[in-house]
Request: fold
Amino acid sequence: QKEVEQNSGPLSVPEGAIASLNCTYSDRGSQSFFWYRQYSGKSPELIMFIYSNGDKEDGRFTAQLNKASQYVSLLIRDSQPSDSATYLCAVKVGGGNKLTFGTGTQLKVEL
Amino acid sequence: GAGVSQSPRYKVAKRGQDVALRCDPISGHVSLFWYQQALGQGPEFLTYFQNEAQLDKSGLPSDRFFAERPEGSVSTLKIQRTQQEDSAVYLCASSYLVLNTGELFFGEGSRLTVL
Reply:
């Protein structure tokens, strides 16, 4: 079992819709959770981080964390074509310093 | 510079050649990470430095891989006797202190192709 699992997609949504990206993790010691966006041929960039159970909103983005289910998700409201990218879920375990990434979900927002 | 700078951006090596990849992190960033990203995959952790100290090298796939950061700023990832399976993008990332918010600032990567 991989430490961080994501559906590779592609996930296709129409412009203006809500895109829902999901991630599960295996280590119950995981404490910090991150979503990075990676455009094709570019480097990852941080979108959001979440530490506590529940929802965290930032503009059109909402991160959701459920530690009991070992599940973290990212919702993108009013999806735009510019949101088309690969979204990487990353996890930091306990007091460690490294981030463990999933394989990423490719999102396509269609006109 | 304003961001993390990596060189070369593209490297083609013949199998068996040695390569060296350079990373110049954001000035003042204490933590430096190397990741390997194969096509269609997420970044895989290779190694971590805090200043000049290499605190974690658990992700280096073999003893052909070696990284250093002798003065606590620029880092070099060296791959000896390259193999085809080493073909990937090598990403360097830095952060100001040990990971708090998780904001790693990534360079554009060095794409290695081994023929």
Remarks:
- Chain B has no helices and eleven strands.
- Chain B touches chain A at residues 31, 33, 35, 40-45, 48, 50, 55-56, 59, 91, 98-99, 101-104, 106-109 (CB under 8 Å).
